Amino acid sequence: MDFAPGSPSAGAPLQPVSPNPQRDRDTPSLFSSLRRTTVDADDARDSTVHEKINQFNSLAMQSKQLERKTADAALKRAMLGREEAEADMRRYRDEARQLRKQVEDGKERERRVGERLETVMVSRPALVFSD
């Protein structure tokens, strides 16, 4: 199968044939202006798509930064809470230690008073029971 020069080959797209090929070279054709318009529209659409992608990425970064700030704030609150709890625990331990000492001191006083009373009762039995 031989094709004549200028005729479409098998499987190639058809091209419009102009009666005046010189004029086609000198003036832009309808298809070339449509092609430029389509390319411009594609570029504008690609630009819009890239802008949307950039906006989405920016929002994602802002969201991550906000989450990080929120987590940092929660961590600081937890650390402060722990420090306060530890301070309260130390205060309660000190208070319990003081109360135990007071109880021991009271028991010691009670024991000494009991010993004195016993000594007095043993040394002066007649005074305790006399009327």
Q: Whole-number average pLDDT?
A: 79
Structural class computed from helices and strand pairing: mainly alpha
Q: End-to-end distance, in Å?
A: 156 Å
The largest β sheet comes out as: none
Specify the overall morphology. Answer: rod-shaped
Topology as a string of helices (H) and strands (E): HHH
The counted number of beta strands is 0
| Uncertain runs | none
What portion of the residues fall into strands of 2 or more residues? under 5%
Rounded to an integer in angstroms, the radius of gyration calculated over CA atoms is 51 Å
Q: Treating each run of at least 4 consecutive H or I residues as one helix, how many helices?
A: 3
Helix content: over 70%
Give structural notes:
With 131 residues, the chain is mainly α. The protein has a domain at 30-101. It is built from three helices and no strands. The longest helix is centred in the middle third of the chain and has 94 residues, at 30-123. The termini are far apart.
